[in-house]
Specification:
With 452 residues, the chain is of the alpha/beta class. Among the domains are: 3-124, Rossmann fold; 156-273, 2-Layer Sandwich (Transcription Regulator spoIIAA); 398-451, OB fold (Dihydrolipoamide Acetyltransferase, E2P). It is built from 13 helices and 19 strands. The protein has helices at 13-27, 52-71, 81-87, 89-94, 110-114, 177-181, 189-201, 232-240, 260-268, 285-291, 297-310, 329-342, 369-392; strands at residues 4-9, 32-33, 42-47, 76-80, 100-102, 122-124, 159-163, 165-166, 185-186, 206-210, 247-251, 275-277, 315-322, 346-351, 398-407, 409-414, 420-425, 434-442, 447-451. The strands form five sheets. It has a six-stranded parallel β-sheet with strand order 2-1-3-4-5-6, sandwiched between helices. A five-stranded mixed beta barrel has the order 15-16-17-19-18. Strand 1 (4-9), helix 1 (13-27) and strand 2 form a beta-alpha-beta unit. Helix 12 (329-342) packs parallel to helix 13. It is globular and about 60 Å long. The model has no long low-confidence stretch (mean pLDDT 94). Bound molecules: S-adenosyl-L-homocysteine, iron/sulfur cluster and FE3-S4 cluster (F3S). Residues 11-12, 14-15, 48-50, 81-82, 176-177, 180-181 line the site of FE3-S4 cluster.
Length: 452
């Protein structure tokens, strides 16, 4: 009888994509997906360690799983992803009921490694520089005879993530990613285009290309068989030409090396969605310098102006950290001023969190928790007001939206601008359907539309 698996994913889109790859490799080794965690023979936690809170969530779930293991001693528990990469063997010492710890570059070896865990737990966390990102289509199969295995962990069947590079060489002083994902490695561009073709042919309409800093795609290793170069804007052009691809997006981009070639893609590529996530982190040059972000506020504001010139309707979102070590009230006010200057359509904002192995741990001037919470509250309150103002501008506009979930009566859809659009309609729309709606109401984080 075949064994069953259940994957719980934490963290960013790259982890979501990795979970699909894990599911696929397990399915190729005769595992079937379990309906829930409690009935699975193998539980995989694909983890995130970006902030202390993310790691705590993993640890408390692992604590809870002790009970499952007592009830079913044959249960296997695998910890994959960024916490696994950082903790390695130490994780098994803290949590002896874990059978396998798999780092970010070993996820496709899970079936083989788990088979060796009957007597002893296993750890695979070596980080290589010549690492190859696993292919979605297995090496042994061609694009023509291959059918994607089903995995219900993929939240939106008509939208898929495609990893184009992994790792990061930027070493922002607060960030664990260079430590958990290793050095920057770009995939061969042909592999990426092939993967997008297969996905689109199987019905996917919305593709998001993933990398920690897509601007440096193709800069650190060869990405074509003949050694010719391919920059990120060139890759975007090639992907956008895949027949029948409706919507193309990408994330994330570091402002330090955002080029005009890339900005022009928003003007020139018709299926590239007019939305851009451009994390700024802080509005103070002093703080940006201590974060090792390598740009100034002036440069960031100029980039936003240029971007809006190329594509006036572009939707701009960002990430902010408040309470970075040494951030004074004056520095924080500069972040608040930036909000008024740029008027982001949305943002993700976080309290600075000390992460093991990062250099900001040693910086002086730590801001206390209460003060970080106060700054976060002030930031989010003002950003929410701006979100509402920005969203109100969409009232009266007509968008083609893609149905993501819901049933006759109420549906949740997504626009090219990446807004969630709620609609009420008595008709039956399958997920993935594209329908025209007119926006009649705006909230802080979503829009409402009427079917035309
Ligand atoms: N590669 C992306 C960021 C990925 S991490 C980029 O460079 O833009 C996602 C976000 O988490 C970051 O943009 C940052 O705002 C936040 N973050 C990362 N490390 C953090 C830390 N130690 N404390 C608080 N927030 C952090
Ligand atoms: Fe982290 Fe900076 Fe790399 Fe983004 S660019 S992943 S914030 S080190
Ligand atoms: Fe988290 Fe790792 Fe992504 S730390 S944000 S899962 S790269």
């Amino acid at each position: 009888m075949s064994s069953s698996f259940f994957i719980k994913t934490f963290g960013c889109q790259m982890n979501e994509r990795d979970s699909e790859i894990i599911a696929q490799s397990l399915q190729q080794h005769d595992y079937v997906e379990a309906l829930d965690m409690d009935s699975a023979d193998l539980i995989v936690l694909n983890t995130c360690s970006i902030r202390a809170k993310a790691e705590q969530k993993v640890m408390s779930l692992l604590g809870y799983l002790r009970k499952n293991k007592k009830r079913n001693p044959k249960l296997k528990i695998c910890v994959a992803g960024c916490v696994a990469q950082q903790e390695g063997k130490a994780l098994i010492e803290r949590m002896p009921h874990v059978n396998l710890v798999v780092g970010t570059q070993h996820i496709n070896q899970i079936p083989a490694l788990i088979a060796n865990t009957d007597k002893h737990s296993q750890v695979a966390t070596e980080l290589k520089t010549d690492y190859q990102i696993p292919r979605f289509i297995p090496e042994t199969e061609t694009h023509d005879n291959w059918e994607a295995p089903q995995f219900s962990g993929g939240k939106r069947p008509f939208s898929k993530f495609v990893t184009i590079m992994q790792g990061c060489n930027n070493y922002c002083t607060y960030c664990v990613v260079p430590h958990t994902r290793g050095r920057e490695v770009s995939r061969m561009f042909k592999d990426i285009v092939d993967e997008v073709k297969v996905l689109v042919e199987s019905g996917v309409q919305d593709i998001t290309l993933l990398g920690q800093n897509v601007n440096s795609y193709g800069l650190t290793n060869q990405v074509s068989d003949d050694g010719s170069a391919c920059s990120f804007p060139q890759l975007l052009k090639k992907v956008s030409q895949v027949p029948n691809l409706k919507r193309l997006r990408f994330t994330t981009s570091n402002p330090k090396d955002l080029s005009h070639d890339l900005m022009r893609c928003f003007r020139d590529l018709p299926n590239l969605c007019p939305q851009f996530h451009l994390p700024v982190q802080s509005g103070s040059d002093k703080v940006l310098k201590r974060m090792n972000r390598k740009y100034t506020m002036e440069k960031y504001i100029q980039l936003v102006q240029d971007l809006r010139e190329y594509c006036p309707e572009i939707i701009l979102t960002t990430d902010i950290i408040v309470g970075f070590p040494g951030e004074t009230e004056d520095d924080f006010q500069k972040t608040m001023e930036l909000l008024e200057i740029v008027r982001f359509d949305g943002s993700f904002s976080f309290k600075y969190s000390d992460r093991p192995g990062t250099s900001s741990v040693k910086l002086a001037g730590k801001v206390d928790e209460e003060e970080k919470s106060r700054r976060l509250r002030l930031f989010q309150n003002r950003q929410n007001e701006i979100c509402l103002d920005q969203n109100n501008k969409h009232i009266g506009r007509i968008y083609e939206v893609m149905v993501e979930s819901g049933s006759a009566g109420k549906y949740q859809c997504r626009s090219i601008t990446n807004h969630i659009v709620h609609i009420e309609a008595p008709s039956i729309f399958e997920p993935g359907s594209l329908i025209s709606v007119k926006i009649h109401h705006a909230g802080h984080h979503s829009l409402q539309g009427k079917v035309l």
